[in-house]
Amino acid sequence: MVSTSHFNKTFYGYKTMKTIVPVVALSLIGFASSTMAADADKGKEIFTKNCTTCHSGGRNVMAPGKSLSKEDLETNKVNSAAAIIEIVTNGKPPMPAFGKLGTVNAADIENVAAYVVKKADAGW
């Protein structure tokens, strides 16, 4: 007679799940800790130095429909720290790639993203 418990554990991916769940959990913890480590106050300093020419007060002088308001960030699918980090790092014309150019380091880009999210949530 075949044991049904063995069948259920292998058939439903029990062994696979035992491996995947801890890996995913650790990945999420790592992502959360890097996001939580971002400092919006430091981000304000970097933003003021590098971004206010085009984005003063959360506006966008080059493309008004792509401001840093919560509504525009959502409309343009840039309403997360990760999405903001991507654009600040790699650029999106006419915005330069601050990370690739070495103008702003990765930690400061995370701080800027935290600042932008915080200000957008508060309505600038």
Structure, described:
- The longest helix has 24 residues, at 14-37.
- The model is unreliable at 31-35 (pLDDT under 50).
- This protein has 124 residues and is mostly helical.
- Helix 6 (81-90) crosses helix 8.
- The protein has helices at 4-11, 14-37, 40-50, 52-55, 70-75, 81-90, 98-101, 106-122.
Lay out the secondary structure.
Blueprint: H1 4-11, H2 14-37, H3 40-50, H4 52-55, H5 70-75, H6 81-90, H7 98-101, H8 106-122
Task: Please provide a brief summary of the model.
The chain is mainly α and 124 residues long.
Describe this protein with a few key phrases:
single chain, 124 residues, mainly alpha, 68% helix, globular
